[in-house]
Design brief:
Elements lengths: L8 E5 L5 E2 L17 E5 L33 E4 L2 H6 L4 E5 L2 E2 L4 E2 L6 H11 L7 E5 L3 H12 L4 E6 L7 E2 L7 E6 L5 H11 L5 E3 L6 H7 L1 H10 L5 E5 L4 H16 L8 E7 L4 H7 L10 H10 L18 H7 L3 E5 L1 H15 L5 H16 L8 E5 L4 H5 L5 E2 L4 E3 L5 H11 L1
Parallel strand pairs: 5-16, 8-9, 8-12, 9-11, 11-18, 13-14, 13-16, 14-15
Antiparallel strand pairs: 1-2, 1-3, 4-5, 6-7, 10-17
């Protein structure tokens, strides 16, 4: 974008409050002795929203970026009528991420993971010759692949073989994007394990996941969209979670908006949901445990196979780390709710009927959780509610198109040979 200047910000360690400069792709505070996220603190304390043609970068004041990229789309928030009336809610707001031109949102990969990808890739130093590595259960890989392909950025994706159907595109990708997979029967954790082996080579660097402030603040634009549209901070925030990074981002955006001073001092109650039977965050929260409970690998893989919302199958989320999901839920009087495949499918059908757009399995889990809480009386009918629809519009995006699927350059076993993996991936670039 013309006239764009890199955002001015510092980083602050959540555990120690130590503030320091971002000297390049810093994912943590090297002086901190305990596991902790770092948070971006922006020079501009009041958000100035730019015109819609800036896409995601309309929120650039609160994104830790060096440049802007073409092709992004910001989340769009609108007041629900049909679904709200059906549920008996007077103040339900839907933040839509996906492909729905009639609502003004055009995320080509149909997922809010594009908010992460555009923010992270805009934080990158383009003089760095190393290759970025992203491990994903599906949607994140699709978003990063599209953004890196469009902007000729070298990328290595690591995805479970069982989830490769998520890697669809409306046209072939640039050869700068490569893919390796963890063999069938593996889950997201196996993909992370494989990516960690790749990172033993100095030719690669980790995107960083929840530790990357650009990823979190990119996702936080969902809340910025909601609040600047509604005119106030909502009472409730609903989202389905695998890692919980989006909910952490929502909490952080909420705190910035309170500091801004124009949107009230409300703290949204975070209600995050998981797809049964894969519910490790729910189990830890119910036990009031900062640490994740033991989850035997074989059972975790089997449970991940059973759920429709496979993007929610993260068994090592940033939960107990300082500034992580446990802290976010505690700080917001939040809760964790569970929905079954059947409940989520019913919710998706309702959304299509009353809002006119198909939604992914993950936001269907979030909607099912909202329905359960409304029916039980746990949420007041007049509460201001934000429902983060994290993926939608695949039917419209795919209609009449011949799809192109990214295939793995190689598939590795769940107990891969380290030397073989490193040798192979180095030969790809």
């Amino acid at each position: 974008m013309e006239n764009f200047k890199p955002t001015n910000y510092t980083l602050r360690c959540i555990a120690t409050d130590h503030e320091f400069e971002d000297t390049g792709w810093m994912l943590d505070d090297r002086e901190c002795k305990c596991p902790s996220l770092v948070r971006a603190h922006y020079e501009k304390r009041q958000l100035e929203v730019k015109p819609d043609e800036w896409g995601l970068y309309k929120f650039a004041d609160w994104l830790p970026i060096k440049r802007t990229l073409e092709g992004s789309s910001a989340p769009v928030t609108y007041r629900s009528e049909g679904l709200a009336k059906h549920l008996g809610l007077s103040d339900l707001w839907i933040t839509l991420n996906g492909y729905c031109p009639k609502r003004g949102v055009r995320m080509r990969t149909c997922s809010f993971k594009e908010t992460e990808a555009y923010a992270v890739c805009s934080r990158m130093d383009w003089n760095d010759e190393r290759v970025m590595v992203v491990a994903s259960a599906g949607n994140t890989a699709r978003a990063f692949a599209q953004v890196c392909s469009d902007n000729n950025l070298k990328l290595l994706l690591v995805v479970p073989e069982d989830n490769l159907s998520a890697l669809w595109f409306t046209g072939p990708l640039n050869d700068c994007v490569k893919l390796i997979a963890a063999e069938r029967g593996g889950d997201y954790f196996d993909a992370i394990n494989l990516s960690n082996i790749v990172l033993k080579s100095d030719k690669f660097f980790a995107e960083g996941g929840a530790k990357n402030v650009a990823r979190r603040d990119g996702m936080g634009t969902t809340v910025l969209s909601a609040v600047t549209t509604i005119g106030r901070i909502p009472d409730y925030y609903f989202q389905a979670v695998g890692s919980g990074t989006g909910a952490i981002a929502a909490w952080e955006a909420n705190m910035r908006l309170v500091e801004d001073g124009r949107w009230g001092s409300n703290v949204m109650r975070l209600v995050v949901s998981q797809n049964a039977p894969f519910v490790p965050i729910f189990d830890a929260w119910r036990a009031d445990s900062r640490e994740m409970l033991p989850y035997e690998a074989k059972k975790a893989r089997r449970d991940a196979e059973l759920i429709n919302a496979k993007v929610l199958s993260n068994r090592r989320p940033p939960y107990g780390i300082a500034g992580g999901l446990y802290d976010a839920l505690k700080a917001t009087n939040g809760d964790v709710v569970v929905a079954t495949n059947a409940q989520a499918m019913r919710a998706a059908k309702l959304f299509k009927e009353f809002e006119g757009i198909d939604i992914h399995s993950a936001p269907a889990v979030a909607l099912a959780s909202l329905i359960k809480m409304v029916e039980s009386g746990a949420v007041a009918k007049d509460a201001c509610i934000m429902l983060n629809v994290t993926g939608a519009g695949e039917e419209a995006q795919k209609m009449g198109r011949e799809l192109w699927y990214l295939k793995p350059n190689k598939t590795f076993s769940l107990t891969p040979d380290v030397a073989e993996v490193i040798s192979y991936v180095e030969s790809l670039f």
